[in-house]
Task: structure prediction
Amino acid sequence: MALAAVRNKIAYYRRRIRTLERKYATDFNTFTTRLQGRATPAEEDDWLAWRSAQSMEADWRKVYQDLLNGGNR
Result:
């Protein structure tokens, strides 16, 4: 049950990331470089949401690995 909940979290943040990748037709690192010194407020908001989604996805992936490695006992 815990694994399924964590997988759902990972999928949620992955969808958020993919939405932003499609919106800007690029990956996060390229988007970051492109924005330096010329970002609009809306782009800054999206950049923050994107960075947050990446961080949360990475955190949930770590939790998932921890559960797979015996943390689910």
